[in-house]
Amino acid sequence: VVDDLLITGARVGISDCDCMGLGPVVLCDGALVNTSGVAFINDVRIYGNGPGQTGVLIQDKNGNNGTFNFSNMDLQNLTANGFVVDTSTGGGSPNVNISSSTIKNTSGSAVIANDITTFVDPATGLPQGRVRLASSTIDGATGPGVVVTGANAIVETTTIRNVNNYGVLVAGKPTTSDTTVLGGTATAQIANSTITANIAVQASAPNSSDLVNITINGNTLLAPGGGNGVNLAVDQGKINANVNANNIVGTPTTTGTSSTSGSSAVANILLTTLNNATTLNDNFLTIKAADADNLRAINNNATVVTVPPPRVGPATLAPIPPPPDYDPSVLV
């Protein structure tokens, strides 16, 4: 158990044991805390005052698959990133829970989940390997508030504001120096949160082996600068999305074609398909809804915009990417 500390000026404030020497507090994936492999870190204040400083770095290089429970954390003025969970260097599948915490004025992103393999633990039957941010506040970041790349993450009952462009950014391919990695799988759930950003939630699958499963439910998504509440974009990869019961407030995008039935909308969900002509028979972007009008209705009349718009004209025209596939039974 780590409790009630003030850490100022460390290159890494808290790290697991493979980062010995980087920060004043060292944890070992729970192995030195108790035999259950669970570490509890509460009421720690980590303040930056110089270049290249990160609040928390978990890599689990030994593959212990430990659980880290962070609560009542206060991270401020960090000049690299806030919480970073990154097993791209061959680590295990840690569970990292962040609750009732504040991450303020970060030069970078407040929370990063990168290249975390998720599997079902045969002993418990529960998923192992994910990051969960709950009941917390992100206020100020020069990068996206939360970044999920090739990982599994949950953002719930959290407020995100004053971030650069994206509140939550999700992509299939992890960030890695391994040039043989051409894509990846990301699973994200954003629920019951309030996010203010040019694009509140962005999910992308540009590579052929990218798969993004994303659930965006019950949020208030604010785009005061005229951006999108939800932006889902595919090229060669695939996205399965459940977007439901969100209140999206902002200026609608004017490109593409939008759902117009019902009352006038004040915000939108932007769906972009850019896959090449050789793969047009596949469904690259699948939405859990009956159709665009249904998607609009279940999100409090948010405008639904498709780019490029559906083909109008003879079939001899040059092929364009297929529109989103609406499937109420899709599993996300």
The gyration radius over C-alpha positions equals 20 Å
Overall geometry comes to globular
**Strand pairing plus helix content: what structural class?**
mainly beta
Number of strands: 32
- Please describe the biggest sheet, giving its number of strands, its sense, and whether it closes into a barrel: 18 strands, parallel
End-to-end Cα distance, whole Å, is 36 Å
Write the layout of secondary structure elements.
Elements: E1 2-8, E2 12-16, E3 25-27, E4 38-47, E5 54-58, E6 67-71, E7 74-76, E8 83-86, E9 95-99, E10 102-106, E11 111-114, E12 119-120, E13 127-128, E14 130-134, E15 137-141, E16 146-149, E17 152-156, E18 159-163, E19 166-171, E20 185-191, E21 194-196, E22 199-205, E23 211-217, E24 220-223, E25 228-234, E26 238-244, E27 247-250, E28 257-258, E29 268-273, E30 285-287, H1 292-297, E31 303-307, E32 325-326
Parallel strand pairs: 1-4, 2-3, 2-5, 4-6, 4-7, 5-8, 6-9, 7-10, 8-11, 9-14, 10-15, 11-16, 14-17, 15-18, 16-19, 17-20, 18-21, 19-22, 20-23, 21-24, 22-25, 23-26, 24-27, 25-29, 26-30, 29-31, 30-32
Antiparallel strand pairs: 12-13, 28-31
